[in-house]
Predict the 3D structure of the following.
Amino acid sequence: MNEATLTRTLAGVPIILLLLVFFALPLSMVLVLAFRPFDAQAIVGANWTLGNFRRFLLDSSYLLTLWRTVWISLTITVLTTVFGYPIAWHLNGLKSRSARLWLTLIVLLPLMTSLVVSSFAWVFILGNNGVVSHALQWLKLVDRPTGFLNTTTGVIIVSTYSYISFSILAIFATLQTINQGFARAAAVHGASPFQTFVRVILPLSIPGIVSGALIVFALSMAGFVVPFLIGGGRVSVIPLLIFQFTLQLFDWPGAAALGVILFVLTLGLTWAISTAAQRLTPWER
């Protein structure tokens, strides 16, 4: 082993140890716990069982919660992509450095603010006496105070705001790498600006769209703060069930099983999205 190879190997040791201690080890402990029975006195039984998975995967109410978690996460992912792409496009087209700097700071604002703090701020915005309710009454769309707290709609709105920065930054990074000569070549051959965007720019930006979507989807699937504070515990999703099984029911094996199910489902769906994206972008292989 030469000196350069040894240096690279030693440089990778800290990150390997970090992953082992803070990812692989806790995940292994959760996986083992998921196959233990629940004991009312000891919390964790001594035997091995598949009962934790059976009671969640064979119960229609838990399956409904699982589907609701996936549906909400997919909706948030689509909304962050749809609203994030125009912002990323505008950010990429800015010529002024100061304008780009200020818009970038605005884009990063949700990431610079604590999710708990921003969620409490949204409580006042989406409440029955909040800004949204007054705006709807002023527009004559409703005739009485109407809020979005404790609703799936409220959870989706706040989650979209909280995670849209990841989508914008991922798409913007990809737009930055696209050679503008492609757009000029399309224009020379008679393509309109719309045709150039749809047939040249949009396909080339798919990797950024997918990267942002995967990040947002994973965060949404595991999101707890927004469903808890905005949903008020009434929008049942898997992370809330894990919280209830852990701290209210003290059923740690059940919570571990739910965590494993959530992890496997998220991993499987992200793999499916990635595979579909690779088929849509054969030039990236």
